[in-house]
Amino acid sequence: MVFSSALFLFGFLPVFLLIYYSLPQKFKNHFLLFASLLFFAWGAPLFVFFVIGSLILDLYLVRKMEQATVSKEKKIFLLASIVLNVGSLAYFKYANFFIENINELFSTWGAGAVANWTDIALPIGISFFTFKKLSYTIDVYRQTHRSFDSIANYFLFILLFPELVAGPIVRYNEIADQIIDRKDKETIDHKLSGLYRFIIGLSKKVLIANVLGAEADKIFDSSFQLINTADAWLGIIAYTFQIYFDFSGYSDMAIGIARMLGFTFPENFNSPYTSQSITEFWQRWHTTLGRWMRDYLYIPLGGNRVESNKRLYFNLAFVFFISGLWHGASWNFIVWGCYHGFFLIIERMFLNSFYGKIGKLPSMIITFFVVMIGWVFFRAEDMGDAMRYLHKLFVVDLHPTHQIYLIDFYVILGIAAMLSFMNVFKFQQAIEKSIYFNFYSNKRTLILGLICYTLLILSASAMVSASFNPFIYYRF
Amino acid sequence: MKETKHIRSFSMKHIVFVFFIVSLFFPLIQQQFKLIKEKPLEGFFNIEDYPTLSIEKWKNGEFQKQFETAYNDQIGFHDFFIELQSQINYSLFNISKIQSVVVGKEGYLYVRNYIDAVNGNDFMGSAYINLQIEKGKVVDSILKQKNISLLFAIAPGKGSYFPEYIPDAYKTNNHPDSTNYACYKKAFANSSLNFLDLREYFLKIKDTCRYPLFSQVGVHWGEYACYIATDTLLKKLGIKNTAKIKDLKLNDSLIQTDKDAGLLMNTLKFPKYYKMTIPELIFASDTSKPTLNLLSIGDSYFSNIVTTGIVDSIFKTYDYKLYNKPVLSKAEFKKHIEKHQVVLLLATDATLNQFPYDFIDQAFETYAPKDKYYYFLKKREFMIFTKGALKNISKNKAWQKQMIRAAKQKNIKPEEEFVSNAIWLYYNQ
User: Fold this and answer.
1) Are residues B284 and B388 in the same domain?
2) B337 shares a domain with B307
3) Quick check: A306 pLDDT over 80?
4) Phi and psi dihedrals of B140, rounded to 5?
5) pLDDT digits (tens, 9 = 90+) for B90-132
6) Total of domains in chain B
7) Does A10 sit within 8 Å of B24, measured CB to CB?
8) Could you tell me if residue B299 is inside a domain?
């Protein structure tokens, strides 16, 4: 069940909120956990018991780790928990990928397949909740925060439905206290700003990302014979904005729902396309993932404080290799991760000083271009398609196109571009701050309310009618 | 963040928040109690039913998927939401997101396949079309021996009749000769087959015709155009028309076929349109009784002619098969054809990609196996079909990938897999 569906918007959410707000404080977390389990079971019914089992086992390991007095013993439990979590992720997400590649390797040597494909379904949100589980284990190990006393609270932290499917990746130490007690944040100001944030996120997803996505899909799914260079550029530009509005819209919805419940989730996006380097891009794009990678992988590897540049570059490359793999079990995701890692390395080698010389705007344009080309690997189905798409982009082919682009696509593309880059202006930053991070006066409540209500109706119309496609006569 | 403490502000915010939450319940309430009457949507579409719960369906996610679709399809204000979205698209962008409807210039509406036909997007290829004509010639000569006349006719579609209102974004034809119409026209001209080009005739009279032949918001030709088409067809067949126009009336409320594209858009407010003319016909009773039996195989444009009632008065009997359906067995087919003296095969340019609706293929298989050209043409058919199938595979990324995977599993070259699939398709089409 995605947030931008009729079942969620006009079913699950209002019923959930009504019951949640009606319940006394002491039952709120229990009900929230019940709703989260229901949400998870709806999307991944077969995995509920597996997830519950793995949560219990993990909880046991972390408790034992916390109780252990000897450092070595602590480390053993830490390792066991990490192996359990990484192992589950590896099995569910990457088993077939590894089998496929090993078989491919053996076949090039003339040998037969070493293993067969297995039918492994991917539990929803596994990449996200695995990282959350790891953050719990590591934060407790590092004594950044004590473990939960209650099993229910631990379950709630992992399965909290607003962030279950697509983040933001909320780390244990950021939310532990809020799970135990968030009464001071359960105010009407929080609820209202959360609601508005949710509606803005929904609009970003439905009114912008979906329109751009439909055109991007049309181009990326077309045979390469049927598209020309102009189509290919339009496709990747559309996808560049689609993925941003889709993902940031979903994060806004998650942050908004959480705020309605009294939680404060960390921000996940901060106008990433205004970045002036890839390093800055990763400080603005999916920031909760970036921070997770930094704190739980990059710094333990030595981070920046290493003896040689070689080691530093290795750390960067490794982190971005893992980041690529985390996004999907396919070579194109790995290449996408490595591509970003490569730019991070060369920025440290010489590119940053070049950016310094050319100024802010050219740096921003170059960075945007680099990011956009990177999305080709991310969006293409496999490496073969990615390479053919890049060929279409850079080897001019102007044969007449059969693609038809309607005016709404260009308008929405223009709006998306404008909203993505407006943050370079101070007035836009002020507007965003006043909507996202301030509570409202009466006047602002009403004005924003009117805007959000309009956006809600427009989003609902677009959402409900997305699949409506009647035939003129039945017999046709 | 600075929190407001003011008591008035506190209550105002509560009201706004509660209003929003209650609003989220409105569709659910409407779904259950139907408090507000909604205008039903036009067109044929599927409304998903709620699934019955079973553990198996729940486990494989089928239940959830169907439930979500059903919830979306049956939610309260579903029809209003769709109409609102359509209205926004129409009023704000002058477009329609109903895939088959295209909003043209000056309020003219089209159905997409009529534009595709003009652009040649549905071009069947000259090899295929020439093969149909070759087969048609064989069939025609055999039917002639049985005193059955075969007449082929092409009617104008809205796209070819009003090309000037097609939106610029849709004008993508760079090869005007690569359309089904251009190719059929050329092939008919080079053959002895009896062919009537109504499309050319309608375009010829377009500027001098006193009344509009096509409506602004419909897909089909109007009743007046149907009369002209029938009259022209009869002349071609050498039959005297017994139906004459007594009066022509301007019609305020369009009949269904004149506004079908507009209805299909499902906007809140119906688009503006110009009035159409409906002829009032008188049928002469003093002429000799009709003697011919007509078998007509065509698309919805012939359905329009049938509804005018002219055909009843001119032919002794007529049998009309829309898209040559239902398919008859060889024996039934032979018996059926031979009951008639005239066989009319009519297509609009948008249905030329289905023309002649397998009728010629079926007649060829029924009558021609002993013909000297039979094996020659069958061989050509095989080559054309498999070549076409290979071309389609190369254009379809998903299909191609699926076959490359299959080839890998069978340890054969992808090309071998493509060819064997094309051959399989030929024998199992």
Assistant:
1) no
2) yes
3) no
4) -60, -45
5) 999 999 988 789 999 999 999 999 999 999 888 888 888 998 9
6) 2
7) yes
8) yes
Indicate if A399 belongs to the active site. Answer: no
Mean per-residue pLDDT over chain A, rounded:
88
Same domain, B316 and B407: no
Domain shared by B352 and B251, yes or no: yes
Query: Any CB–CB contact under 8 A between A108 and chain B?
Result: no
Q: Domain boundary residue among B349, B369, B389?
A: B369
Q: Which amino acid belongs to residue B91?
A: S
Is the Cβ pair B64, A408 closer than 8 Å? no
What is the rounded average pLDDT for all residues in chain B?
A: 86
Domain ranges across chain A: 6-181, 189-276+359-464
Query: Measured in Å, how far apart are chain A's first and last C-alpha atoms?
Result: 33
DSSP bridge pairs for B298: B322
B176 and B315 together in one domain:
yes
Q: At what angle do helices A13-22 and B7-33 cross, to 10 degrees?
A: 130
Q: Give the model confidence (pLDDT) of B368-422 as tens digits.
A: 777 777 777 777 788 788 888 888 887 787 788 888 878 777 777 788 888 888 8
Q: From A450, which residue of chain B is nearest by alpha-carbon distance?
A: B16
User: ipTM, 2 decimals?
Assistant: 0.85
- The answer to whether B247 and B223 have CB atoms below 8 angstroms apart is no
In this prediction, residue A147 carries a pLDDT of 83
Could you tell me the CA-to-CA distances from A429 to A240, A418, B137 in Å, in that order? 22, 13, 75
Q: How many residues are given for chain B?
A: 429
Residue B402 lies in domain: 378-428
| B292 and B337 belong to one structural domain | yes
Residue A303 structure tokens = 């981070």
The answer as to whether B122 is a domain residue is yes
Same domain, B167 and B288: yes
Query: Which residue among A30, A145, A190, A327 is the active-site one?
Result: A327
* Of the partner residues A6, A446, A476, the one whose CB lies closest to the CB of residue B71: A6
Q: What is the DSSP secondary-structure string of A5-25? A: SHHIIIIIHHHHHHHHHHS-H
For A381-416, what is each residue's pLDDT tens digit?
888 889 999 999 999 888 877 788 889 999 999 999
